[in-house]
Specification:
Blueprint lengths: L2 H10 L5 E3 H12 L3 H12 L12 E4 L2 E4 L1 H11 L8 E2 L9 E2 L14 H16 L1
Antiparallel strand pairs: 1-3, 2-3, 4-5
Helix pairs in contact: 1-2, 1-3
């Protein structure tokens, strides 16, 4: 999971883009245990801006017990989430004097999927056992 992108995604979901540290930590924990898809998605998004540093670039500000996304942070997040331009249609051969454009579908994984709580508990127990040994 990419920490920088995850922080931007969490903050943009809060009213005014501000979240206290307790809420940020809780949301980060939820996303970190939500499965492989979230980690893969944030890595793909982070690859679009390899030198991303949310604090030194002024994308997030530390304000009285929490963090807030800035206008610049929102712009950067929109940029990294923007879908790549759709591929140009490929002209198919004429079929009964009509042209047909073929466009490959673009698969975008959903941002959030429900998680089986029992499965999450089992995984946490297994990690705790592995760390204890």
């Amino acid at each position: 999971m990419n920490f920088q992108v995850t922080v931007l995604k969490i903050l943009v979901s809060y009213p005014g883009g501000f979240a206290v540290m307790e809420d940020l930590k809780r949301d980060m924990a939820i996303l970190a245990t939500s499965g492989r898809e979230w980690a893969d998605r944030t890595k793909r998004l982070a690859a679009r801006v390899p030198a991303l540093d949310i604090f030194s670039q002024g994308l997030v500000e530390r304000i009285s017990g929490g963090w807030q996304i800035t206008a610049k942070g929102r712009v950067v997040l929109e940029f990294i989430e923007a879908r790549p331009a759709a591929p140009k249609p490929i002209q198919a051969p004429l079929v009964e004097e009509a042209t047909v454009a073929i466009v490959a579908p673009v698969h975008v994984p959903p941002l959030w999927q429900p998680v089986d709580r029992a499965k999450r508990r089992r995984e946490r127990r297994e990690r705790a056992r592995a760390n204890a040994s």
